Amino acid sequence: MKALVYTAPDEVTYRDEPAPAAAEGEVLLRIEAVGICGSDMHAYHGHDPRRVPPLILGHEFCGTIVEGPGRGRRTTGNPLITCGTCEFCVQGRDNLCANRTMVGMTRAGAYAELMSIPARSLVEVPQDMAPVKVALVEPAATALHALNLVMRASLRPLPECAVLVIGGGAVGMLSALLARSYGVRRLSVAETNPLRRASVERAVGCPTFDPRAGGAPADGTIDVVVDAVGAKATRAAAFAAVKPGGVVMHIGLQDWASEIDMRKLTLAEVTLIGTYTYTTADLRATVAALHGGVFGDLAWVEERPLAAGAAAFRDLAAGRSAAAKIVLRP
CA spacing 20 to 30 A to 170: which of 49, 227, 230, 254? Predict the structure, then answer.
């Protein structure tokens, strides 16, 4: 089969690879669409020691079952392979599974014509749902899980809040679109790439600004800040923007460590929430939301052939693409 393989830092190679075999309890999928995630870019740059080349990346996928139960059905799945028996799994918080492994990290991912995955990890989708839309379930579920946590922590209903999203990539874009659908009107997005700012303004219809050039909200005026980047600078910006009693939702993890304003966190009673991916219940809810149009028409998503995946990675790394999400089609 053909696959796009992470072969070295800043290098992915489209080449022949052995076709996977479905082990007991697994199904074999023919991949129809697969998204390029920020974590894939992190690995591409050699910044993720958990993803060791040579490795087939890719965990945002749509596929058709070609071997195993449900043959012929279009599906997606939870890329987190969980044990189902630890304390977190039995609580329904399987994203925190103590024994989890992951598609595109500890096992071959979806940048390929074929991929195997445990049958219990599959998530049903409507059979008329377009493959590219199905491939958006995973990143959209990340946004849904994060905003659900925000709504549990915020003292005011989300539609009453001023919300700032830092980062106009896929998760930032999807978070902004979901916030809009939840009724948020005072919404802005910080993004350094002018192409992405224009894309956010078209898709979300909210103000954007380049945080390097001014225009940011005044310090201490934002009820909810969603940091979809997770860099040292964005963490500082989030803490500067949030008002007393507000919420900082930390999704991105570009930098693994940095100082945060612990004095403000304490004296202003700021709630800082870390979030990791989504639960299986979140994935199912996101399928329904995407199919129902909650995230809009997704016209900002760009499709390219898997064979052109290396160029897509280079374009994303260089900031040449206006698309917050590039989806590859094998």
Answer: 49
Half-sphere exposure for 44 (CA within 13 Å, toward CB): 24
Query: 3-state DSSP call for residue 275?
Result: coil
Do 172 and 232 touch, CB atoms closer than 8 A? no
Question: What's the whole-model pTM score?
Answer: 0.96
**Residues, the chain:** 330
Q: What burial letters (b/e) apply to 218-247, b meaning 16+ CB within 10 Å? A: eeeebbbbbbbbbbeebbebbbbbbbeebb
Angle between helices 137-153 and 280-291 (to 10 degrees): 110
CATH code for the part of the protein at 2-136+298-329: 3.90.180.10
Domain ranges of the chain: 2-136+298-329, 140-274
CA distance 200 to 198: 5
Q: Token digits for 192?
A: 């350094």
Q: How far apart are CA 122 and CA 105, in angstroms?
A: 18
Q: What is the pLDDT of residues 222-265, one digit of tens each?
A: 999 999 999 999 999 999 999 999 999 999 988 888 888 999 99
CATH homologous superfamily of 140-274: NAD(P)-binding Rossmann-like Domain (3.40.50.720)
Contact 28, 116 (CB under 8 A): yes
